[in-house]
Amino acid sequence: MTASALRALLTLDRVTHVPGVWDPVTAALAVAAGHRAVHLSGAAVSATMLGRPDLGFVHATQIADRATTLVPALRGTPLLADADIGYGNPAHAVWTGLAYSRAGISGLHLEDRVRPGRGGHPAGKEVIEIGLAAAKVKALAEQVPEIAVIARTDAYAVKGLGETIVRCGAYAEAGADAVFPEGVRDLDDLAAIHAALPGVPMVVDRSEATPDHPAWTDAELLAVGVRLVLHPVAALLAAMRAASVTYRAIGESGAADAVERMPWAAFTALVGQDEALDPDAGYVPGTLQT
């Protein structure tokens, strides 16, 4: 799959909300709900594949492997995936992009923060050199054009708005399809980035990992250049909560009757049982009730 569908969303005069998925079932649910793009985060893969925190345990290969299992369920809906810092230098970033492309991933976001264990800095408390970060973006844009590149900077928390604008500009000039100024909580600051970089689409996230997000409307975000809003772990946390409640109910009463659940028929339709038994059946009915 090429990046064209994802790049098209970045040009629309609307905000697209991009929920997180982590396996074929959640991918199919997101498509059934009408989402136009979905997101695969390193945190979700680390938790569901390894039972580990998002502290560098997951590598590009594991993200790509997970993507190969869920892309068929997306039926053409573009998948944006977490690429950490590219897992090394520009050559490593290119390798990551190629692996992602082969897996069917449409786009990736690449960050410029120092990850745990690299350089002795705590995660999110330092950023790498701007030249190295821009070189990774440039290498990906030139050598893996079939992948849309969203360049994330974490400079806002440690170096302020001015450095954030400089870095976003450098990454856009290097070939990024959009910029992702992480940590900005002031709409005026987003507007300042947009004013400095007219025509460069922006991406923001609403992750529970960083609480107290401002209640911006889509209209407000659109006015300051935001085109994608990521919700990387909302569904994962909701699923974990539902599972926790169910396990507790079974343990306390011997049954899950009091817990709201998806009907068995909807589940079998979601995972393709009808299609397996009847090749003419649709993968996920358009009228699926979840």
What is the secondary structure topology, with strand pairs?
Layout: H1 4-11, E1 16-19, H2 24-32, E2 38-40, H3 42-50, H4 60-74, E3 79-82, H5 90-103, E4 107-111, H6 130-143, E5 148-153, H7 155-173, E6 178-181, H8 187-196, E7 202-205, H9 218-223, E8 226-231, H10 234-253, H11 264-270, H12 273-277
Parallel strand pairs: 1-8, 2-3, 3-4, 4-5, 5-6, 7-8
Helix pairs in contact: 2-4, 4-5, 5-6, 6-7, 7-8
Structure, explained:
With 290 residues, the chain is α/β, with parallel strands linked by helices. It has two domains: 231 residues, TIM Barrel (Alpha-Beta Barrel); 39 residues, no CATH class. Helix content is 47%, strand content 12%. Strands 2-3-4-5-6 form a five-stranded parallel beta sheet. A three-stranded parallel beta sheet has the order 1-8-7. α2 packs across α4. The longest helix is centred in the C-terminal third of the chain and has 20 residues. The radius of gyration is 20 Å and the shape is globular. About 2% of the residues have low confidence.
